[in-house]
Amino acid sequence: MNLTKIKKVRGELRVPSDKSISHRAVILGALSRGKTYVKEWLVSADTLATLRAFRMLGVKIRRHGKEFIIHGSDFILKEPKDVINAQNSGTTARLLFGVLSTQPFYSVVTGDKSLRNRPMLRVVEPLKSMGAHLDGREGGDKLPISVRGSNLKGISFFNKKASAQVKSSLLLAGLRAQGITEIMEPYVSRDHTERMLTTFGVKLECMQTKHGHLVKLEGGQSLVGCEVYCPADPSSAAFFAALATLAEDGEVLLKDVLINPTRDGFYRKLKEMGASIEYTNVRVVSGEPVGDILVKSSKTLKAIQIDAEDIPSMIDEIPILAVVMAFADGVSYVRGAKELRVKESDRIKAIVENLRAMGAKVEEYEDGFAIEGTRLLKGAFIKTYDDHRIAMAFSIAGLLAQGETKLDNPNCVKVSYPEFFEDLKKLIS
Ligand code: S3P
Prior knowledge:
This protein is an alpha/beta fold. Helices cover 30% and strands 27% of the residues.
């Protein structure tokens, strides 16, 4: 797609469903008793990696039109006949380790080049302390990693870096552990696993303490198959919210979006910058808050500062937030975001390099960056590092810049949003 400056963005859009919720719907459905009916499941490269993994573990999953039916295994999975490939998906690999740790058989998980470089010790270590046997390259930190599960015991774990993947992996293992599993985080990370476990009939406690956010559950509980609805992904909708805000003539209604407070930090910060963001038609579906988001263009935006405690609720939106910051008045900061260096790409490097190529003034820190706003970006050749969120964020930047922008690999959007460019065309034509 030829990316050049546009003026008008108008229309209504229901972006594809939430990736985190879609992964969890398959995982919890696969572990439960009876059937689970999943509505509006996200079909993307990442979520298909999870679906294929559970098929390899003997779980029957059928598609009926737009609905997926999962025949639950009640935690009785089969030894896979081959290595499981989580492809580009950190959520698939890390949550799988929690599940595989409960199983007596041998399995190996690998991934693509990016995932094989991402740290796994954050789940491998606590799972080993629960009693599972895991090993892999670089002392168990890198894929391929082998697992042989065992009789697990519950642990009390302080997760220094808030991470929903770590929390979820340990909760899944905790379901089959003896005693109580408790996980504390300095700031609450996305809570879809906790909410969905409740929908599947599991009892758990979540509370804010003076040391952080605590989740605990007792082992030995069963999950009961149910119906799960997957709402539109706020991380995918964020690209259109940014475009509507920054375009000269923008008005977009984003339908059916997940507005869970552990996920909507981007929209709250955008509003703080002066954007016109309105939640309407707010309701609760399958235990998750959902609404329509009306976004209109804003003449001016002011710079903001993002700190460590803000990061978990907008971790995946930082690339597109950086693009918005490049158009705000003043210097914006993102700090306490070192985790971005170990996402699908080193996102701090990718943001800094690409914004600089577009003519922005950016300073790089180990844990973030500073961006001096300007209303004038110029088109550039974007290095995506095969990272879907970098590709989509800089496509939006290209539609707001003077001159032409090209991406080295537009195809990588398939990881979370295969129809991204088609949807974009619908709103700007
Ligand atoms: C996810 C959690 C986040 C997020 C990722 C999806 C999840 O990672 O960046 O895209 O579905 O649990 P961390 O938990 O490592 O922060």
